[in-house]
């Protein structure tokens, strides 16, 4: 369970803004933690907190606030790349996007087939349309029922106000393509972040785009193709978080030969 250490908290509201699930609220100038039923354990709350005032039951302060790495690749992966959900209206230049897409052609791909193509929703007009069609798809299909509820509260987890959406398209029946797509999208994201852009994977939009004829038409998804994954891209509207989120290592099982004594 998360809690707020009130002797540290200055009620700045950084956690309220960072939490994608709306678990923190600022009421009458004071931050409160509401029900944590929908918490996804992303720990953006503690990452955003300038006073390290968020606490996690059973975890020491030192473990909950890991040190920031110095090595550049570790810094890019652990700290600079983060799911950003607040963007400015500024449009990234096409050259910047293309530079990352070209770089990502060097990502691994089974038998080097690279069986994908890109569509880019470029500009707020396009991404707002994508957001609205995604919420409409949710209302009609009953899938992701939280989307219309969030939309009514003015919360957007579909495009988060990003100026661009990168959509990675793959042939529908190619069983290897989803893994290739994940590799190329991960690489693209890191290259974009390294160029100073901000990103967030757009799973809600992607799911809707696979299904909704209106979204397929907007993106230009051809017959026999499907979106594998999508990425919001834009400029972040704030500085990066001061801390790393808590990310404990998942279980690791070492499978190796037993040592025989000589
Ligand atoms: C496949 C995939 C789909 C996602 N879809 C969404 C989404 O639709 N909206 C959103 O706000 N975040 C989305 N995310 C972001 C995750 O919530 C985020 O990566 C996770 O909470 C970890 O946070 P981090 O990326 O900052 O480390 C998605 C991430 C992935 C990998």
Quick description:
By secondary structure, the chain is of the alpha+beta class. It contains ten helices and eight strands. The chain has a four-stranded antiparallel beta sheet with strand order 5-6-8-7, sandwiched between helices. It has a two-stranded antiparallel sheet with strand order 1-4.
Order of helices and strands: EHEEHEHHHEHHEHEHHE
Identify the strand order in the major beta sheet: 5-6-8-7
Helix and strand composition category: alpha+beta
Bound molecules: flavin mononucleotide
Task: Walk me through the structure.
The protein is an alpha+beta fold and 262 residues long. Helices cover 35% and strands 16% of the residues. The strands form 3 sheets. The protein has a 4-stranded antiparallel beta sheet, with helices on both faces. The protein has a two-stranded antiparallel ribbon with strand order 1-4. The protein has a two-stranded antiparallel sheet with strand order 2-3. Helix 6 (124-141) packs across helix 9. The chain is globular, with a radius of gyration of 20 Å. The relative contact order is 0.18. Bound molecules: flavin mononucleotide (FMN). Flavin mononucleotide binds at residues 20, 40, 42, 82-83, 85, 157, 160, 200-204, 229.
């Amino acid at each position: 369970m998360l809690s707020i250490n009130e002797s540290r908290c200055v009620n700045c509201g950084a956690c309220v803004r960072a939490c994608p699930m709306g678990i923190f609220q600022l009421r009458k100038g004071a931050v409160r933690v509401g029900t944590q039923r929908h918490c996804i354990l992303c720990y953006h709350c503690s990452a955003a907190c300038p006073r390290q005032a968020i606490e996690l039951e059973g975890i020491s302060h030192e473990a909950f606030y890991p040190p920031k790495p110095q090595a550049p690749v570790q810094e890019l992966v652990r700290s600079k790349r983060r799911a950003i959900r607040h963007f400015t209206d500024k449009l990234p230049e096409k050259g910047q996007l293309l530079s990352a897409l070209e770089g990502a052609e060097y990502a691994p791909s089974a038998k080097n087939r690279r069986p994908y193509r890109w569509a880019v929703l470029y500009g707020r007009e396009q991404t707002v349309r994508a957001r609205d069609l995604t919420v409409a798809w949710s209302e009609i299909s009953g899938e992701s029922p939280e989307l219309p509820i969030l939309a009514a509260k003015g919360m957007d987890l579909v495009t988060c106000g990003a100026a661009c959406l990168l959509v990675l398209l793959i042939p529908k029946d190619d069983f290897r393509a989803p893994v290739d797509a994940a590799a190329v999208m991960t690489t693209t994201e890191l290259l974009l972040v390294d160029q100073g852009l901000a990103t967030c994977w757009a799973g809600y939009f992607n799911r809707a785009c696979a299904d909704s004829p209106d979204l397929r038409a907007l993106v230009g998804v051809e017959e026999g193709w499907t979106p594998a994954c999508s990425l919001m891209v834009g400029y972040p509207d704030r500085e990066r978080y001061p801390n790393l989120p808590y990310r404990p290592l998942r279980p690791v099982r070492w499978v190796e030969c037993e040592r025989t004594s000589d």
